[in-house]
Write a structure and sequence with these properties.
Length: 292
């Protein structure tokens, strides 16, 4: 990479590309967005009037100023787009999930090594305030030996949204690939790979053609990690419940950083990442021999 700002090419300008990747790239002074691959140039130019729009990733890779490619396209094409970028000598960041199968993921990792290119995955939920607090409680021993970890995404969306690729019958679609990728990544980040996995994955809504519900139980000896999401739940339950021999931590509500991005705020703004006190989690633990 050059000593100047790193030239970035963004592939895809749907929800992830427009609402997450583009504003985060713009907020980092060491990155410069050189071009966007999108079939809807009017939408890109509405937000990014000075950024060129190209119709295909091959056109993006023709530009030597693009050193880093960010893949924010539908899950089914993550592998082919990342592979093409690596073969073209570009560094690559792939939106979650990294690939549709473990074989595809292994191939990309091996290819990046052969090409001597950086390859990473965009898992922004690792930096959510609530998860970082959970991580601190777990690793700091505040809760003692953790016995139960529950993380969930509850939503109420009773009618399938057929125009969204996430809800069509195609590889990489469905709630487990969408939100499960976050929950699984956070659990593995905290506890490593599980010894056992039990999974109940199904479509519950009338007309749904892909899964819209899952309940996973990951086993780590005496520890049980429960990851849950559904589309017919209101009001939502706790986002996190973590219970141990010395205490519990319970948190409601989603981290507010994505909502802040959608409202036009950017990392580095005053108060970025600060949460309203009414949304703080509750820690119940022993303190000086007293339970509080």
């Amino acid at each position: 990479m050059s000593g100047d700002a790193i030239g970035v090419g963004l592939v895809g300008y749907g929800t992830s590309g427009a609402d997450l990747h583009a504003p985060l790239i713009a907020a980092e002074p060491r990155l410069r967005l050189r071009a966007v691959v999108s079939g809807k140039p009017d939408r890109v130019h509405r937000d990014l009037p000075s950024v060129p729009v190209v119709q295909a990733a091959t056109h993006l890779l023709d530009d030597p100023a693009v050193e880093l490619v960010v893949v924010a396209a539908p899950n089914a094409v993550h592998h082919e787009l990342a592979r093409a970028a690596l073969l073209a000598g570009r560094h690559v960041v792939v939106d979650k999930p990294f690939a549709v199968t473990s074989a595809e993921a292994d191939e990309l990792i091996e290819l990046a090594g052969r090409q001597d290119r950086r390859l990473s995955i965009f898992h922004q939920r690792r930096w959510d305030n609530d998860f970082l607090t959970v991580k601190r409680c777990v690793r700091g021993g505040v809760l003692g030996q953790v016995s139960t970890y529950i993380a969930r995404y509850d939503r109420f969306s009773p009618d399938p949204v057929v125009h969204r690729w996430q809800e069509r019958d195609q590889p990489g679609a469905g709630l487990l690939y969408d939100l499960g990728a976050h929950l699984i990544d956070q659990a593995v980040n905290l506890f490593g790979l599980p010894e056992t996995v039990l999974a109940d994955v199904r479509a519950q809504r009338t007309g749904a053609v892909v899964d819209d519900y899952f309940h996973l139980v990951l086993g780590y000896g005496q520890l049980r990690v429960i990851l849950h999401a559904g589309s017919l739940i209101r009001p939502p339950g706790p986002r996190f419940e973590v219970h141990g021999h010395a205490g519990s931590f319970v948190k409601h509500g989603l981290d507010g950083q994505i909502a802040a991005l959608l409202a036009g705020r950017r990392p580095g703004d005053a108060g970025w990442g600060m949460e309203d006190e009414q949304r703080y989690g509750t820690l119940t633990a022993d303190a000086g021999g007293e339970r509080g």
